[in-house]
Amino acid sequence: MNPATLAMPSKGRLRDDALALLAGIGITVIPPADSRSYRARVEGRDDLEIAFLSASEIARELGAGRIDAGITGEDLVREGFADSETRLDLAARLGFGQADVVVAVPEAWFDVETMADLGEVAAGFRARHGRRFRIATKYWRLTQRHFSQEHGIQLYRIIESLGATEGAPAAGQADAIVDITSTGSTLRANQLKVLTDGVILRSEACLFTAPENVPPQIADIAGRLRAAQKKAAPPS
Asked: Which ranges of the sequence are coiled-coil (predicted)?
C-alpha cells in the first residue's frame, strides 16, 4: 500500500492539539530527528506520512491535490476556494481551534446593530463622505459572499489587511472590519462590536480530504476521529 500523506499544522497550539487528538485514537506521530524537518513518521505505520505545514499551506495543498488529507482551520478552506464545499470533503470536525469570522463596527455607532443597519450606512456613505464605505479584511471571498450575496449590500470597498485588522477603523484606514476572533477581547480593546447577525462563519480545526478516492488509511483515521468527537460530545 502506498503511504498516504496527512498534513498537520507546523507550530503552535493547533499543532499540539492535533498531535494530542491523533494520539488519543492511536496515531502516535514520531517527531523528526532534525527539528528543521517538516516530515515525520507514525509509530508502527509505514502506510502513513506526516507533513508539517502552515495552516494556510495545508489548505492550498489540499486544493491542489498534492496531499491526501490535512488538519487546518475551516476559515482558511472556505476563504481559499469558492467551490470548497464540492472540492474538498470535511471529513471530521475536531473540537479545537474554535474562532468566528465576524463583521465588526465601531462601538460608537449606536444605531448600527444588524447587517440591514450597515447596509443603510453603506448606501448613503458616498453622499455623506465623498467615498465608498470601506471594510478591512483578509477574508475577501467570505466578505463578498456575506455582504453582496446574502445581504444585498453592494456599495462598499474592501481594503486588504495584512495584519492588525482590528486597528484599521481607529487608524482611519477602514470603517468596519471582517476578521476572525475567538474571545472578542481584541475587538473590545479596539472599541469594536460584532453585529447581531454578523457572524459569517463559526470555524474550528477540521480534517479535510478529497471528495473521492480517499486512501483507506485516511478514511479509517477520519472514522476514528468522528467516533472520538461523538463520544466526547455532551449528551443532548
From this structure: none
pLDDT at 87: 92
The CATH class that applies to domain 100-202 reads alpha beta
CA 130 to chain centre: 34
Cα separation, 164 vs 159, whole angstroms: 13
Task: Report residue 195 as a C-alpha cell.
Answer: 453585529
Residue 211 has a pLDDT of: 87
Dihedrals phi, psi of 48, to nearest 5 degrees: -145, 130
* Residue 219, phi-psi category: left (phi > 0), alpha (psi -120 to 50), beta (remainder): alpha
Topology annotation, domain 4-97+203-232: D-Maltodextrin-Binding Protein; domain 2 (3.40.190)
Please report, as a single letter, which amino acid is at residue 21.
L
Residues 86/150, Cβ–Cβ less than 8 Å: no
Within the chain, all domains assigned CATH 3.40.190.10 are found at: 4-97+203-232, 100-202
Strand partners, 102: 179, 199
CA separation (Å) from 39 to 17, 67, 202? 18, 13, 30
> Are the C-beta atoms of 81 and 38 separated by less than 8 Å?
no
- 124 burial level (CB within 10 Å; 0-12, 13-18, 19+): exposed
**Residues sharing a CB contact under 8 Å with residue 211, sequence separation 6 or more, in sequence order:** 86, 87, 88, 89
State if pTM tops 0.85: yes
Cα–Cα dist 118/100, whole Å: 19
pLDDT in the model for residue 236: 66
**What residues in the chain have per-residue pLDDT under 70?**
1, 236
